[in-house]
Design a protein that fits this description.
alpha+beta, 32% strand, 3 helices, eight-stranded antiparallel beta sheet, single chain
Length: 156
């Protein structure tokens, strides 16, 4: 995948976590995989349509998802707080919106769906695609999290 199409995911993720939660993020090495595999406890999935079709998912361990929620609401929350998956969904929306803005500068447009949320240590992300899945690992507060994207670009 062209680095110009990957970099917006990196910059949008770093900026969103810095702005929304005051967290510094370190990126790992992006890779391509065959399918979406949930890598953590809480995931937010955004469908996209337009010049690009596919899905983007952000997956966080519960401890980091709770920290994100606390940053957004300004108070301590428990592990079972319903705001935790909502916070992850909102962050997935913000990151994908940032990617959308950067892609628009390249003449590529798409629309975002409402976030779909998945919670639990063994949850599955069931998204069928004939495209490889871009997986970008990150760390914040010493805790890993992942951004995944399966994208199909319309031929021009």
């Amino acid at each position: 995948m062209d680095v110009r199409l990957i970099n917006p995911f990196i910059s949008a993720t770093v900026e969103a976590l810095r702005t929304m939660a005051g967290l510094e993020v370190v990126r790992g090495r992006p890779d391509l995989e065959r399918q979406f595999v949930a890598r953590a406890d809480v995931s937010g999935l955004i469908g996209i349509t337009g010049d690009v079709k596919g899905a983007v998912a952000l997956s966080f361990p519960l401890s980091l998802a709770r920290r994100l929620c606390e940053a957004l609401v300004g108070e301590t929350v428990l592990d079972d707080d319903p705001g935790i998956p909502d916070a992850v969904g909102e962050l997935a929306n913000i990151v994908t919106g940032g990617v959308k803005r950067e892609y628009a500068k390249m003449g590529i447009s798409f629309q975002l769906s409402v976030p779909t949320l998945a919670v639990g240590p063994r949850h599955q992300i069931l998204y069928q695609s004939d495209q490889p899945v871009l997986v970008i690992p990150f760390h914040a507060m010493g805790t890993p999290f992942w951004v995944q994207a399966a994208l199909k670009f319309d031929a021009r």
